[in-house]
Design brief:
It is an enzyme of class 3 (hydrolase). The chain is of the alpha/beta class. The chain contains 8 helices and 10 strands.
Length: 254
């Protein structure tokens, strides 16, 4: 039995430090690397890619709405031509940096508001799918587990990777608790590790209302910008491996 463990990295910007990429890369099997539209500067992104290559960590393009000020967490009503070009641009930029770092981009994971919006919005979802296919149809697409996007992407011929979140609260319908509501972000490493073992073993998580929600996931995300993120990711990995579950990139498990 195996599952992927991923984190959002490359998000530091100039003097503003976000997360501990070097430490997190020693724990995860896949890294969603910022492309400069919600966070990340070229030099910092390149360093993260070099570190990931040295650790043998799989690389994904963490594409976003163009929203540096809002960290990509604000919805944007972009025209299709603009959104498609934006996603193509970001993937291409990361591909160039990855080549220089001796690695390559193998999948795409939308970030923040874009990730959540295209989980249910058919038009913007189609734009992101079209952009990924235009660059490289062999790229995987990471999607919220159980979302409409998972079906749309598969119908379009993309490989989909369904994802669960270690450090985010779930609602009874399987969606994430909005960040401005109580229970949205979880901080206790032991509690998070226990619920991810439940996810890996039973395919379920306990929602904020106490109900049990079925979540069939190929990958688990620990946000790199969360307080104590490295400790949380380490505890999740330890708990899973102690139970006989192998941590391996979803791209290697194909």
């Amino acid at each position: 039995m195996n599952i992927d463990l991923n984190s959002d990295l490359g998000e530091s910007f100039g003097a503003w430090r976000m997360g501990d990429d070097a430490a997190m890369l020693a724990v995860v099997s896949s890294a969603n690397v910022a492309c400069g539209f919600h966070a990340g500067d070229p030099a910092g992104i390149l360093q993260t890619l070099r570190s990931a290559a040295a650790q043998g960590v799989c690389i994904g393009a963490h594409v976003s709405y163009p929203d540096l000020v809002g960290f990509g967490r604000r919805n944007m009503d972009m025209a299709s031509a603009d959104l498609q070009a934006s996603v193509i641009y970001q993937i291409g930029a990361l591909q160039g940096l990855a080549t220089a770092a001796g690695t390559r981009v193998r999948y795409v994971k939308p970030h923040g508001a874009l990730y959540n919006f295209i989980a249910h919005d058919a038009r913007q979802a189609a734009d992101v799918i079209a952009a990924v296919k235009a660059v490289d149809p062999s790229l995987g697409l990471v999607v919220l587990a159980g979302s409409a996007l998972a079906g749309w992407a598969r119908e379009a011929g993309l490989r989909t990777i369904e994802e669960a979140f270690a450090d985010r609260g779930y609602r009874a319908d399987g969606s994430l608790v909005p960040r401005n509501q109580p229970g949205a972000v979880l901080h206790d490493p032991e509690a998070v590790a226990a619920r991810m073992l439940q996810l890996a073993r039973d395919g379920t998580v306990t929602a904020v209302d106490g109900s049990v929600v079925r979540v069939a996931a190929d990958s688990i995300c620990v946000h790199g910008d969360s307080p104590g993120a490295v400790t949380m990711a380490q505890r999740v990995r330890e708990r899973l491996t102690a139970d006989g579950i192998t941590i391996r990139s979803f791209m290697d498990a194909a």
